[in-house]
Amino acid sequence: MDSITVVMLDDDAFLLKALKRTMQRMCPEACIETFSELEPFWCYLREHPHVDLVISDYLMPHMHGLDVLERCTQENSYPVRALLTGDMTLATMMRQPNVVHAYLAKPFNAQDVQALFEAVADLKRLPFSSAARTALGAMTSFPVSDGLLRKLKVLVDDDNSDAHEIAAVVAKEPVIMAKVLQLANSAYLGFQRRTSSIDEAVSRLGTKMLMAVVSSMAISKNYQTSVPAECHQRQLDIASDYACCVKAFAKACGLSRDAQEELFATALLSFIGKIILLAEGSDESNLHNEAMLQDDGADYQLISAYVMRLWGYKAELCELIMKCHDAMAVTEPHLKSQHQILFIAKQVLFYNKKPLEVQRYCTDRNMTPSICQGITGFPWFVS
């Protein structure tokens, strides 16, 4: 993990020293600064604009932790903001505007701290400009990781759990279950027989695709009241069609099932930024092209990558989301094929480029021959 600068605020100086020792032992690469008083804390943030992570205790006598993090959006919005709390009730998490990127429960464990620090280090390494990072940090409409998603992740990561246990959790959420069944019966995923069994649907999709579906639905649920229902549903349908098409094209080009599932997840989750922008009042017709945060990449791509890394998705997936508009942006050999698939699908489906035109463009740039050859023979569709 790359070195990151962490600033912690807690009124209890004794506890603060203990927390620092514990975190330093878990993550020796981190530079951890601690403060028990507000004014030195604010001064440090003003003088160090590129602090990577701010952690504030929830209950303090002179200032509430949520108020601290809200003021951070004005004083220095660059850092990721985390709240340290023993109260993980829904009431704590429902405050609007949402100024918390992540919660650390007290007592925290090594896995939670490591995951947060790795996410922050990856955000530092991903190709966000400083201005973009500051602007993203100033946004206060990002959702915090959903309880259902966390529960599913525990099951997925447990070698002793099975598809039936995972399906039982999904079945408790009717809207998500319906979406999982819809995708499991999609013609573009290539299954010959329809199914109404949630167990079979989960097995068909696999855990990577399932987690992407649950993530997209969980995030979308946060914006049901702020995005018109028709617009909201249209974007979800477009995202689902895009993801299914990308997976099918990857299969036609001979990519492994694992790569196909990763591409499905990347394509589906790339639309999260669109929902967030719509909630902030952006025009639906210009979401693909708007690039106010930085020149290379549409705003929705940057927002999607930022949120998805905070939600625990791999940095590589986030990098693919950020760079899928540029045919030559990814040079890592193990990511090239996936990046090319996403680029091609984006050109045909969203920029209305003719497959033959895209094929010539890709061939001229010496992109993977098997992928170039597959462009014109694939049955592209536009939702």
Tell me the number of strands: 5
Number of helices, where a helix is a run of at least 4 consecutive DSSP H or I residues: 18
Instruction: Report how far apart the termini are.
Output: 41 Å
CATH topology of the largest domain: Hypothetical protein af1432
Pfam family, one: HDOD
InterPro entries: CheY-like_superfamily, HDOD, RNase_Y/CdgJ, Sig_transdc_resp-reg_put, Sig_transdc_resp-reg_receiver
Domain Response regulatory: 5-121
Modified residues (4-aspartylphosphate): 57
What does this entry show, briefly?
With 383 residues, the protein is an alpha/beta fold.
Question: Which tags fit this structure?
Answer:
Rossmann fold, Hypothetical protein af1432, 3 domains, five-stranded parallel β-sheet, 18 helices, phosphoprotein, Sig_transdc_resp-reg_put
